[in-house]
């Protein structure tokens, strides 16, 4: 398999017609090794962040043997690549047949739930199996997270004790408690708050947990979002675990998704047309740039000019449009690129390993990406593989305040279409 040293080599050799996921296996291995060395418990990879075959294989080869799956499709995928892996079905709402097949056909023993109805469903669908590990998912406040996951899942504090007690009585194997502090969580203390709430619920229920699962949410680095060191998250979790009312043998689990894969992948896109400060690309919000549209994240970019000549002019703020005919397919950025960027130029968009390729759809006939392996460094890294910060040319355009990206100085330009027109 060919490995490209730089994006320019790739452009010169292939002049790619479709968007290309430029992937760095080393970034995933290093992140996986870091978590295994520094998290004092079991690391489950949350497959939904990036279900690519190469990711699962790289994690498996780096020693990750546990996976957080949320659908039968993910169960089948991981089983096919890592037959020995331990799978935890951590979606609190599952179909009966998905539970039955996961249990009987794929050996899944760990299931999460946040209601009495789901508990009953799991018991029914497994023929009242006695060897289940049942994990009660608690709601969290979502404080400190850029993409909170609070409304959809999790038992509220007043419901949790009864559910914990019922779950404890339903299994002869392990009973656990879990939560998700929200994705791209910028505050380590969010984990401590959730763990102490979990501890209070356990005390009120009068039961011990065999597993404390702190979920995902570990951040990566993006422009305007530079988190505290990951070691700080580990310290906070260690201390909070010591403060919890649990027994000696209670296991600590985590389910990082984003953090293990975000750095690994850039997407190489091509400029098909320029209109002023708007660049029309061959990738967009129905492709790998979902968060650039819906969370308005200004991902870091680099210009790659096909003939290898240097671009001219100082960096200017641009916005992107994707290839589909839907006006939602717009990424406001700002993305800072040389003033003379033009049709035929390629743009490498960094930090798209998590929730990038995973989100692509086939809408309007677009959405297919090719994958190539790279051996250059990620655009930024919390694991020492690249710069820890992504600097933006005019630091005044963004400040990081109270975990929100505040845009002080929006780039001027045409109207921002809010309405859909297909
Ligand atoms: C999405 C998800 C994760 C991973 O979250 P990240 O923010 O990507 O780390 C972990 N656990 C569950 C239950 C999830 O739904």
From TrEMBL:
One annotated Gene Ontology cellular component of this protein: cytoplasm
Domain of life: Bacteria
Keywords from the named record: Lyase, Pyridoxal phosphate
InterPro entries reported for this sequence: Ala_racemase/Decarboxylase_C (IPR009006), De-COase2_C (IPR022643), De-COase2_N (IPR022644), De-COase2_pyr-phos_BS (IPR022653), Orn/DAP/Arg_de-COase (IPR000183), Orn_de-COase (IPR002433), PLP-binding_barrel (IPR029066)
PROSITE patterns: ODR_DC_2_1
GO molecular function: ornithine decarboxylase activity
UniProt record, GO biological process: putrescine biosynthetic process from arginine, via ornithine
Catalytic residues identified in the record: 325
Enzyme Commission number(s): 4.1.1.17
Pathway(s) the chain acts in: Amine and polyamine biosynthesis; putrescine biosynthesis via L-ornithine pathway; putrescine from L-ornithine: step 1/1
Cofactor: pyridoxal 5'-phosphate
Family: Belongs to the Orn/Lys/Arg decarboxylase class-II family.
Protein name: ornithine decarboxylase
């Amino acid at each position: 398999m060919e490995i490209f040293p730089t994006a320019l080599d790739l452009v010169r050799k292939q002049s790619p017609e479709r968007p290309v996921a430029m992937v760095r296996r080393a970034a995933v291995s290093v992140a996986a090794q870091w978590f295994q060395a520094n998290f004092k418990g079991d690391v489950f990879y949350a497959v939904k962040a990036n279900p690519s075959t190469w990711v699962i294989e790289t994690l498996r080869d780096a020693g990750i043997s546990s996976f957080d799956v949320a659908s039968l499709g993910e169960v089948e995928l991981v089983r096919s690549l890592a037959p020995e892996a331990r799978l935890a079905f951590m979606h609190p709402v599952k179909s009966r047949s998905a539970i039955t097949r996961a249990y009987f056909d794929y050996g899944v023993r760990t299931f999460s739930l946040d209601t009495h109805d789901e508990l009953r469903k799991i018991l029914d669908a497994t023929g009242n199996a006695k060897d289940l590990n049942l994990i009660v998912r608690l709601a969290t406040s979502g404080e400190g997270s850029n993409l909170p996951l609070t409304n959809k899942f999790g038992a509220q504090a007043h419901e949790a004790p009864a559910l914990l007690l019922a779950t404890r009585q339903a299994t002869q194997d392990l009973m656990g408690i879990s939560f998700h502090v929200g994705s791209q969580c910028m505050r380590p203390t969010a984990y401590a708050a959730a763990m102490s709430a979990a501890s209070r619920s356990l005390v009120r229920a009068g039961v011990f947990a065999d597993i404390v699962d702190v979920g995902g949410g570990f951040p990566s680095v993006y422009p305007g979002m530079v988190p505290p060191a990951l070691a700080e998250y580990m310290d906070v979790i260690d201390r909070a675990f010591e403060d919890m009312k649990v027994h000696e043998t209670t296991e600590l689990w985590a389910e990082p998704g984003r953090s293990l894969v975000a750095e690994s992948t850039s997407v190489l896109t091509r400029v098909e047309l320029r209109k002023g400060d708007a660049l029309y690309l061959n990738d967009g919000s129905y492709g790998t740039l979902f968060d650039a549209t819906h969370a308005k994240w200004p991902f870091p970019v680099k210009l790659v000019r096909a003939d290898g000549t240097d671009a001219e002019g100082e960096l200017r703020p641009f916005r992107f449009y994707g290839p589909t005919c839907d006006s939602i397919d717009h990424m406001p950025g700002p993305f800072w690129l040389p003033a003379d960027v033009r049709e035929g130029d390629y743009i490498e968009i960094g930090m798209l390993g998590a929730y990038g390729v995973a989100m692509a759809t086939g809408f309007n006939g677009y959405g297919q990406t090719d994958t190539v392996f790279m051996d250059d460094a990620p655009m930024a890294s919390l694991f020492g593989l690249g710069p820890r910060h992504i600097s933006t040319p005019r630091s005044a355009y963004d400040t990081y305040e109270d975990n929100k990206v505040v845009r002080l100085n929006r780039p001027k330009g045409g109207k921002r279409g809010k309405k859909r027109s297909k």
